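Materials and Methods. Structural model of GTPase Era. The 304-residue sequence of GTPase Era from Rhodosalinus halophilus was retrieved and submitted for structure prediction as follows.
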Amino acid sequence: MSDTATRAGFVALIGEPNAGKSTLTNRMVGAKVSIVTHKVQTTRARIRGVAIEGEAQIIFVDTPGLFRPRRRLDRAMVAAAWGGAADADVVVLLVEAHRGITPGVEEILERLPEIAQGRIVALAINKIDRVKAEALLELSKALNDRFDFARTFMISAEKGHGVEDLRRWLASVLPEGPWLYPEDQIADLPLRMIAAEMTREKATLRLHQELPYQLTVETESWEERKDGSARIDQVIYVAREGHKGIVLGHRGETVKAISKAAREELEEFLGRKVHLFVQVKVREGWMDEAERYRQMGLDFSDGS
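The predicted structure was written out as tokens:
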């Protein structure tokens, strides 16, 4: 393929927490590269998933959800989200069909004109299976009255409805140029971080409402073995001593279940045997340590 025959560029998915950005990224890429849970604010770093559509390479920037930040970590996540949009060639705003124009969506719409400078902005109304057609049309009109979107798509990221149309359109509007990643690469995250994200997802799914946002997972070591398997050692850091017991569970049952689920998903992702060892450690104030933010792909100074 010649350079002029190909297209490549960055597409930022923005929206409120739980709008379906991670699910859409994974659906577009065809593999799990972004953490997906029923809980909000689970995506912390700008995870790039790489999809091929015809002659185009689409690099999806799955940003953290946009919400009103309270803590340093929250502020760094929101800064990463807006930064991801500002760095992109195309921005896609995801809005949940059944929730409509919430106060959070209102805030995003107000800031959208400054982000739109020099880039294409599209609207994707997600979870369309939850509302009737008339309500969808009304919501689409209301949103397009507020902002002049280049295109509007009705999708279900979870079920795949409308996703192909969105992907084809994105491929057609990206800038002409050579591909930015090797053809077989689906994400630009190091394997260590992908592994940590998978374990954090399992912890988030398993644990109580508040605790998951006060824990982080780091991959301490990764050893390739002669038999083709990999030994991975990870640490779950929590902010308080009381949280350690919650993560461990009775006789270590909770952390064992988290580790087992993460190991099984890692084996499926890597296509080989994985020996995963997970410890739980208390690290008070980790949410105020620059190194922890670097590990998550966030800028510590953005939280100030």
